[in-house]
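Put briefly, the fold is written as integer tokens. The lines below illustrate.
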Amino acid sequence: MEKEHYIDLLEKKLWDRVDAFYGTDDKVPAPYVTRVNINSDDWVQYTVDNFELAQQKWEKPKEHYGTEENLIASINNRLGRNEHNSHELNYGINGNTNDELVELLGEENIDKMGIQLDGVLIRLIVNMPGHGVAWHHDAANSYFRKFPEYGGTLDDLTRLWFSVVPGVNGHVFQIGSSMLYNWQAGDVWHIPWGVPHGSINFGYNIKYTVSLTGRLK
């Protein structure tokens, strides 16, 4: 980092723009939903067997984002979030990975989360130490692209999050005002629409988590 860039950040205070954008949404807590039955070894092995089908992603504006989402992504980039600290292996879009992950999760677990079996979108995210998901919010853009025939609204959908491995040192996930850590594999939390969230792996183990969008029963 150059001194000029550092001074520019201090003068522009981009973090104030993010605070103003979210208002009080970042004060909303994350409701705990349930615990689903997870075999951690199966999920980790899936990432090995299907490595070539993972999207390799990092924080940046994207074509399928809305204007608001790209604004936050751009600010994150200017503040230093990039491929060097927000890289992830992301399964659930390429090939048949979503259908396979739905099968791996299983109908009983999906039912336990209070969502319909039809129209589930799963994103299995792998973060190496030093990487995480930058502070952002969701508007189900990927869901609407995956299921263009879906005729409902966000009110008919829910966004859920869980880890497929037990929590270990340095694995943290924040949803609104809720700071999550030391979880059990399969502990499920609800991410309310519009509520900002993000994660970090400042530990020494690989972090494996799932973001899931489904249709409410």
Remarks:
- The longest strand covers residues 207-215.
- The domain at 28-57+87-215 is CATH 2.60.120.10 (Jelly Rolls).
- Residues 67-78 form the longest helix (12 residues).
